[in-house]
Design goal:
Aminopeptidase; nine-stranded mixed β-sheet; 469 residues; 14 helices; 17 strands; 3 domains; 39% helix
Amino acid sequence: MTEATSARSARRHHWRREVVELAALFTAVAVADVVANTVVHGPRGPVLLCAAAVALVATAGFHVWWSRRHENAPPPTDTGATAPSPADRSSVAGEQETALWRMRTTVRDEPGSLAALCTALAARRVDILSMQAHPLSDGTVDEFLLRAPATLAPAELTRTVAGAGGTHSWLERADTHDLVDAPTRMLGLATRTALDSAELPLALRQLLGRCTIHSVPARSLRGAPLAEQVPAEGVLAEHTMKFRDPSGGSLTIERPQLPFTPTEFARVRALVDLDARLGQRVPPRRDVLTLPEGNEITVRRADTSDQAAAREMHDRCSPQTLALRYHGPVADVDRYLAHLLSPRFGRTLAVETTSGRLVALGHLLWDGDETEVALLVEDAWQQRGIGAELLRRLVAMAAEAGCESVYAITQASNTGMVAAMRGLGLPLDYQIEEGTLVITARPAGLPAQAAAPSPALETVRTQNGSGRR
């Protein structure tokens, strides 16, 4: 539309509005004249005038009262405003505190069973953050991540689920790490397993929750067969899963408190197959440290390829040093190396000189829910801070892996190991039985302290990583 056309349209609408207003004015005058003649010349003219005056006064008074009543009223709600958030609604309802729960329950494989369970949870103001379905032959196991009011007791939550048809329910507290969806979690666990052979037991424990993992070698230290023959596809029982260990033994996973599902079995088998295809592997990082006297040493991860160098170090160690480390006959120490250096049973750190000679080993061994730490430093390299540095790094690894406790078994006369454990700056528990000393530390909170190098050593450079000085 052009400006000229717009102007003509505006003048036309303005002229029509004036005609309408003029017609309304004439109509009002005519009506007023008729009313006035009727009132003045009627038999009850004065009465009608008085009644009209009273009506006008009453109307004016009501208008004044109504206006004063709404002067202080709150402004009307904006219909375009956003709806209150769930946090705001919970604040109004007095439910600011919430708790995260992991729940697993079995429901009938019938239409409406899951809907009934969700409706019952909603009635308790329980929010379902995620859900996974594990199909079974006679039902479905549903695993939920729930956000429930903190005032809702676990027993009440379990009764609510049971009332909605859930059976064999299992409930435990969760944390923010459980907010990751299942595909993302599996990709993360597969990445950890691919980078480090020692991560497989930790990845399985994170995937399955509280469970016990047994890695049984193919043969004992004296050559007798130990591991049972497990089929290539694995074995699934109610509370047990078994697989072939890539190292030649067997891998057994037990969880007495909660049966395994076929879905979990398939996920574990995928991680075990990935580990078997990739073979033994350790991260290639090497840290070069400077000792107080100026010599440089290298700290790196070790594996079974270091057995020959470890045996040579054993030959240079005194019988007393070997006895303090292995707590048994010195003649059998070489047989332990295949087990200790295998990434399946834990992590091992090796210390090398600039010429490549192995002078110290530090072991972090998985032992169910607990973790054992052990050190061996060649006699000529003791009292230089090497053992304390290895211990610091091993306990930091345990903390990073989520281990609740780390213990060291030694003799009461081993003042070097006792001093190294005290140097961690962690609360320690001591147990002494017939000259054997067990020192237990809780590694929670250690990573921030372990990020800095040992005060007695200086990090010169880090190969395959960022250097620091």
